[in-house]
Amino acid sequence: MDQLCKIGGNKTRQGYTCKRILKLAGSSLSGGRAVTRTFDKPAITHAQQVKLLQQRGMSIDNVTEAEFYLQHLNYYRLGAYWLPFELNHTTHQFKPGTCFDDVLNLYLFDRELRLIVLDAIERIEVSVRSQWAYQLGHLHSPHAHLDSTLFSNYWKGNLKRLNEEVSRADEIFIQHLKVTYSEALPPVWAVCEVMSLGLLSRWYGSLQPKSIRRAIARPYGIDESVLGSWLQHLSLVRNICAHHSRLWNRDFAVTPKMPKHKSQQIAEQFVPSSRKLYNTLVTLLHFLNVISPRHGCRSRLKALISKHSIPVAAMGFPLDWKKRTIWQEEES
Fold first, then answer.
1. Which of 48, 76, 99 is where one domain is finished?
2. What is the pTM of this model?
3. Rounded to an integer, what distance in angstroms lies between the CA atom of residue 78 and that of residue 70?
4. How far is CA 72 from the centre of its chain?
5. Which of 53-67, 252-266, 285-299 has the lowest mean pLDDT?
6. Are residues 66 and 119 in the same domain?
7. pLDDT tens, 252-263?
8. Which phi and psi angles does 141 have, rounded to 5°?
9. What's the angle, vertex CA 282, arms to CA 280 and CA 285, rounded to 5?
10. Position 13 confidence tier, pLDDT thresholds 50, 70, 90
11. What is the DSSP string of 134-165?
12. Pairwise CA distance, residues 162 & 273, whole Å
């Protein structure tokens, strides 16, 4: 795993710019258009895949086991995890000492990491749903989501998506409310239970009255605009995890906003201008400290990193991360 210590600043497959991807693929830009070529790579067997990896310099102690994992994980999927071990991406030659077991270790780490992150996001999603419904219901009305004056121009689109999610829902309570009451949709405290995190983020983002936005954000100790940014970011992260995509060293296009002013202590936990996972983990831990003080996520993350001997610099961790307040265990 020592080789991974040198990849903190490297771009991953999804992190390459368009021009870089075209260059690696042997294509170029002409007049703003990509000059492509016919795909001529044949499909090869699992045994041939193993031989190809060996020819490129990867050490494989157990060929049968490697074929098994390639059969069930897909060569192309694992490619995202051996990319950091490549000496030359054009020739796909590996750095000396690269082992299949190291690649598999990285893959398994990322899989377990996604499960921890997804578990944390689930708790956050349920909590913010509750705040959204409670504050709208009390500060406006049980059917505040049907009042276009409370929302921006995105209200129609959000309402359409909400109608679609309610129509798909097979929850008994939704069916009961639809057949019992005359309103176009059930009340906020019911519809929020069938909202996706992405839709919740959009509804919160389009909410106009600052007083309601502040009321929703207040329990989390952050500014209302910061909450909107965090929800948007976590919606993206949630989708990455739910689709089993690579998470550990990803560069995020949408990043969580750093708190300022009254939330200075929280802001000190972040790494400024980073697009890496570290800042995501900070947002998760902050939320969970509020929602479920004995959450255990912090200790699970530290144990996972230790178990797989992962170089945290590749995830954007600062050198002093273990000393930062957000990573300190709460006294029982």
1. 99
2. 0.88
3. 8
4. 24
5. 252-266
6. no
7. 999 999 998 666
8. -165, 165
9. 110
10. very low
11. HHHHHHT-TTGGG-GGGB-TTHHHHHHHHHHH
12. 34
